[in-house]
Specification:
This protein is of the alpha+beta class and 329 residues long. It has 2 domains: 119 residues, Beta-Lactamase (2-Layer Sandwich); 188 residues, Hypothetical protein af1432, CATH 1.10.3210.10. Helix 10 packs antiparallel against helix 11. The longest helix is centred in the middle third of the chain and has 35 residues. It is elongated.
Length: 329
C-alpha cells in the first residue's frame, strides 16, 4: 500500500510538474512525456508518444543542426545541461527551450534512453533580443554624437581634417589584428575618433602655425590629452574613453606626456592609439612640413618598437601595411 501511494504521488508530481519532461529512446522516439510537455508544444500527450523527438525541433538549418549535435552527444552518453534550442509547436510557431538531459544505460553500459527536462525560456530570449536591439540603437546614437564631436575638433584645426577618422580606422584595424575583444575594439575606435578633442581649447594660430613651434607653444599643445580627459571624464561611456584619450601620448620608455607613464602602466588601448596616431601624423601634411609618407612612418615604428611604442601593436601595424595592403582612405 505504501509503495503504491508513493508511486501515485510520484506520478502526480510528474504529470503536473511546471516543466516539461520527456523520455526518449536511443532511436530518438518519444517513449513518455508529461502534461506540460504537451502544453508546451500544443499537442495532446498521446500525439507526442511514439513520435521522433527530432521532428519537434525548429525546422531551420541552424535549428536542426544544433538538435542533431545534441542527439549525437546523447547517443555518446554525454549529460546535456542547459542547452538552448528552438522547438516548433503544433501551430508552427517557435519556442525557445533550455534542455537538460540525463542518459540511462542498460546492464552492458549501452545508452538506451534519455530523460530530459525542458524549460520554456521564450520570454527570456525575447527580453534578451529586445535589450540587444536597444543597446544597438544606443551604440549607434553614441557613435553619431562622437562623430559630431570629431567634426567640431576638425573645424577648429582644418589642417588635420580627417586625421581622427583615419586614426580611428587604423587603430580599430590594429586592435582587430591583435585579437582584442569586440568591446575593446569598439573602445579603441571610439576613443580614437575624438582623441584630439582637447585641442578645442588651443588657439587656432598655434594649431595652424606654419613654422616650428616655440617651447611655450609646444607646451600648450601638450596640454590637449589632459584637456580632452577633463572634457570626457564625466561622460559615462561603456568604454574607458577618457583614460585612453589621456594616455595616447604616453610612451613605453616613460618619455611621453602628460603623466610620464611607461610600459604596462599605459592602457593597451592607448598604446594601440599611439601607434595609429604617429603613423597617420607622419604620413600626412602638416602646416610646418610636407607629408613624409608611409615608408617614413613605418621606419619610425620599426626603429622605436618596444622603446616608444608597444611591440605587439607595432607588429600588427607593420603586418597590416606590408603584408595586407592597408591604406588610409
Amino acid at each position: 500500500m505504501a509503495l503504491r501511494d508513493s508511486e501515485e504521488r510520484f506520478r502526480d508530481l510528474y504529470e503536473n510538474a511546471p516543466n516539461a519532461y520527456f523520455s526518449v529512446g536511443a532511436d530518438g522516439i518519444i517513449n513518455k512525456c508529461n502534461r506540460r510537455g504537451g502544453e508546451l508544444l500544443g499537442y495532446a500527450v498521446e500525439e507526442l508518444v511514439g513520435r521522433p523527438m527530432f521532428e519537434l525541433y525548429a525546422d531551420t538549418p541552424q535549428g536542426k543542426e544544433k538538435a542533431s549535435k545534441v542527439f549525437h552527444r546523447f547517443r555518446a552518453g554525454e549529460t546535456i545541461s542547459d542547452e538552448e534550442l528552438q522547438m516548433q509547436k503544433a501551430d508552427g510557431t517557435l519556442v525557445w527551450i533550455s534542455l537538460t538531459m540525463n542518459t540511462i544505460r542498460d546492464d552492458r553500459g549501452q545508452v538506451v534512453e534519455s530523460r530530459s527536462m525542458v524549460v520554456d525560456i521564450t520570454k527570456r530570449k525575447w527580453a534578451e533580443e529586445e535589450l540587444q536591439h536597444t543597446l544597438e540603437k544606443l551604440r549607434k546614437a553614441l557613435g553619431s554624437i562622437i562623430q559630431t564631436v570629431a567634426l567640431t575638433v576638425e573645424a577648429k584645426d582644418p589642417y588635420i581634417a580627417g586625421h581622427q577618422r583615419r586614426v580611428a580606422n587604423l587603430a580599430r584595424t590594429i586592435a582587430t589584428e591583435m585579437g582584442l575583444s569586440e568591446n575593446q575594439i569598439d573602445g579603441v575606435r571610439m576613443a580614437a575618433a575624438i582623441h584630439d578633442i582637447g585641442k578645442i581649447g588651443i588657439p587656432s594660430e598655434i594649431l595652424g602655425n606654419p613654422v616650428r613651434l616655440k617651447d611655450y607653444q609646444w607646451d600648450m599643445i601638450k596640454t590637449h590629452p589632459q584637456a580632452g580627459y577633463d572634457i570626457l571624464k564625466s561622460v559615462e561611456f561603456p568604454w574607458p574613453v577618457a583614460q585612453i584619450v589621456l594616455q595616447h601620448h604616453e610612451r613605453m620608455d616613460g618619455s611621453g606626456y602628460p603623466q610620464g607613464l611607461s610600459g604596462d602602466e599605459i592602457m593597451l588601448e592607448a598604446r594601440i592609439l599611439a601607434v595609429a596616431d604617429v603613423v597617420e601624423a607622419i604620413d600626412s601634411f602638416r602646416p610646418y612640413r610636407p607629408a613624409l609618407g608611409i615608408d617614413k612612418a613605418l621606419e619610425e615604428l620599426s626603429q622605436n618598437r618596444g622603446v616608444l611604442y608597444d611591440p605587439e601593436a607595432v607588429d600588427a601595424c607593420l603586418k597590416l601595411f606590408i603584408e595586407k595592403g592597408f591604406k588610409f582612405e
